[in-house]
């Protein structure tokens, strides 16, 4: 697969373009307030800033295209490009986009649940990228067989991945707090959960579609 001709590459390219425009033309502060996700807006605790601000229900997605700095976008895009190509190959580009969007909204929902009155904008693709990383972890990881039941083993592996991700995010949040930096930890966890849960569903649909197509071709093939 040529990455830049894939949904993964297109999303990454659009994100970079949005970063350049928002940082060097519009100004990241103004862009964050107009297109970032502000939980208090969704809760009805904050009036719209002006007529140019995007509707609140769109901001979980638009916020994913904004980043606060070079390292912020670099880290997210590296994970997206590495993990995304495998996940997209397994799901197809349509379902990959669905997963990415669902991750963005799942991240915003988690952030809103934890602090619905938060009045600062949340920006960054970390939530959506966390969904892709969660899908990659559950879909391409090699879990150890802890029990004989495959279903129970998958469940335990999912719990282990979630616990490990929460622990990592907690440590990152702790280090960021020591430096006075705010991290949207609930959003990262929310996106990761979306990836863990949705990969199996989306991948099952792909396998079912391919299986049905194979059966149809076999039925239509004339006997020899």
From TrEMBL:
<keyword id="KW-0472">Membrane</keyword>
<dbReference type="InterPro" id="IPR035952">
    <property type="entry name" value="Rhomboid-like_sf"/>
</dbReference>
<feature type="transmembrane region" description="Helical">
    <location>
        <begin position="120"/>
        <end position="139"/>
    </location>
</feature>
<comment type="similarity">
    <text>Belongs to the peptidase S54 family.</text>
</comment>
<feature type="domain" description="Peptidase S54 rhomboid">
    <location>
        <begin position="61"/>
        <end position="203"/>
    </location>
</feature>
<feature type="transmembrane region" description="Helical">
    <location>
        <begin position="96"/>
        <end position="114"/>
    </location>
</feature>
<protein>
    <submittedName>
        <fullName>Rhomboid family intramembrane serine protease</fullName>
    </submittedName>
</protein>
<keyword id="KW-0645">Protease</keyword>
<feature type="transmembrane region" description="Helical">
    <location>
        <begin position="151"/>
        <end position="171"/>
    </location>
</feature>
<keyword id="KW-0812">Transmembrane</keyword>
<feature type="transmembrane region" description="Helical">
    <location>
        <begin position="183"/>
        <end position="202"/>
    </location>
</feature>
<dbReference type="Pfam" id="PF01694">
    <property type="entry name" value="Rhomboid"/>
</dbReference>
<dbReference type="GO" id="GO:0006508">
    <property type="term" value="P:proteolysis"/>
</dbReference>
<feature type="transmembrane region" description="Helical">
    <location>
        <begin position="7"/>
        <end position="27"/>
    </location>
</feature>
<dbReference type="InterPro" id="IPR050925">
    <property type="entry name" value="Rhomboid_protease_S54"/>
</dbReference>
<dbReference type="InterPro" id="IPR022764">
    <property type="entry name" value="Peptidase_S54_rhomboid_dom"/>
</dbReference>
<feature type="transmembrane region" description="Helical">
    <location>
        <begin position="64"/>
        <end position="84"/>
    </location>
</feature>
<dbReference type="GO" id="GO:0004252">
    <property type="term" value="F:serine-type endopeptidase activity"/>
</dbReference>
<keyword id="KW-0378">Hydrolase</keyword>
<keyword id="KW-1133">Transmembrane helix</keyword>
<dbReference type="GO" id="GO:0016020">
    <property type="term" value="C:membrane"/>
</dbReference>
């Amino acid at each position: 697969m040529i990455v830049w001709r894939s949904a993964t590459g297109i999303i990454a390219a659009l994100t970079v373009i949005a970063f350049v425009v928002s940082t060097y033309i519009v100004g990241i502060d103004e862009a964050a307030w107009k297109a970032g996700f502000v939980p208090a807006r969704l809760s009805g605790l904050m009036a719209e800033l002006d007529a140019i601000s995007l509707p609140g229900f769109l901001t979980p997605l638009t916020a994913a295209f904004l980043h606060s700095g070079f390292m912020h976008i670099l880290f997210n895009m590296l994970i997206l490009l590495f993990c995304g190509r495998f996940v997209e190959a397994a799901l197809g580009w349509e379902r990959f986009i669905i997963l990415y969007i669902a991750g963005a909204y799942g991240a915003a929902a988690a952030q809103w649940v934890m602090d619905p009155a938060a009045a600062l904008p949340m920006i960054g693709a970390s939530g959506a990228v966390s969904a892709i990383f969660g899908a990659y972890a559950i879909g391409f990881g090699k879990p150890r067989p802890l029990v004989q039941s495959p279903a129970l083993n998958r469940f335990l592996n999912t719990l282990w991945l979630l616990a490990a991700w929460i622990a990592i995010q907690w440590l990152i949040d702790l280090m960021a707090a020591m430096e006075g930096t705010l991290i949207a930890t609930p959003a990262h966890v929310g996106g990761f959960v979306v990836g863990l849960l949705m990969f199996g569903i989306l991948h099952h649909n792909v396998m079912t579609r391919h299986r049905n197509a194979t059966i149809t071709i076999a039925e239509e093939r004339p006997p020899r």
